[in-house]
Structures are given as C-alpha cells and as structure tokens.
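Course exercise 7: structure representation. Students receive a sequence record and must write out the corresponding structure in token form. The form below is the worked example handed out in class, using tRNA intron endonuclease N-terminal domain-containing protein (194 residues). Read each field label carefully; the graders check that inputs and outputs are placed in the correct fields and that the protein name is recorded exactly as given.

STUDENT ID: A-19
EXERCISE PROTEIN: tRNA intron endonuclease N-terminal domain-containing protein
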Amino acid sequence: MLFGSQCVCLCLSQFLLSRSLRNPAVPAFTAQYSRRHRRLTLLDHLYLAAALGHSRGLDFRGGSMGPRWKGKGSAGKSLGDPMSKIVFQLQSSILESEAQTLLSGSNVFLAAEPQQADLLNRACFGVRISTFEKDKHWFQLGMEVAFYLSHSLKCLNIPNKDKCLMTHQQLWQYMKSRKPNFPDFYNAYSHLRV
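STUDENT ANSWER:
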C-alpha cells in the first residue's frame, strides 16, 4: 500500500516516463528528476505534479492526456492567438521599454505598462499587484519566472540592492541561496514553458 509522497512520486514518475517515450527532449529531465526526487517533500511533489498537469492543459481523468479547453470557443481562440506569439510580443515589449524591476527577498517586482500588463496576464507570468498608479502596473514574479524571463527570454534585467545589474550567474547563485531547491523547480518550470 502506498502512502502520501510515495503515491505522488509514483504517479509523477509514471507521467514523466510516459512523456519521455513521446518526446526525446524529456529523458534528461526525467533522469535528473528521478535522481533527486528523494530530496523533495510531499508539498514539492504536489507542486510539480500540479505544474506538470495544469500548465500544459492536460486532463488526467480516465487515463486521457489530451488537451483540455475551458469554455466554448477556447480551442479556436487558442489556435488563433498562440502562446508563442503572445510571449514574443511580451519579450519585444519588455526589451523595447527597458522595464523597471526590483529584487526583494524571494520575489522580483516588475513595473509594466498597460499593454505589457495585458501580455503578462495572457502569458501567465507573475501576479498583478493592486496599486493606485494608472499608467504603471506592478507584477510580482516568483524566482523561477524571473529567472526564465532574464535567462531564457533575455528580456529582463534585474538589479541587486546596490542598483547594479546582476549577471545570470549572480542571479542563479542568489536564487539558490534564497531557495535551496530552486534548480529543481526552475528545471521543471522551464521545461513546461517550452
């Protein structure tokens, strides 16, 4: 009989294995995950399982892993305005505007213009913070999201507390010092965003 984290770990391992059989890019992630899974807590397993299922829009009911659409016309809307196009527009907009960021503890705050705020929402990057400013919208980005925008999309520059821009290596070290299992979560996050 399986309990708690064993059951979640088994389900997650089976899911990763099934994904690796269909996608040649996944085995490296699967092997890396299977070596490290013993260090993760039950909460970490649940977080990864939820991220793997929900960010890809997968439906696990009845053994089906097809796309899941919510609402009438969602499939057509998604095909008409693909995520890759939204992310490209966001990347271009942030680069063009040289968006302002603030690093605070384990979060990065991004000041966005109205158009960028809409793109951030549509691309599911960060959480909007309510403020009284009409021309600026602030978004709270987790460490994985901030590093993804900085390193993978190369559109976000993050200064340290001395207002000097951090290199990718400095940012990686900072995030690892704030959250020891950051590399595992970032690997999962970046894998799902592709």
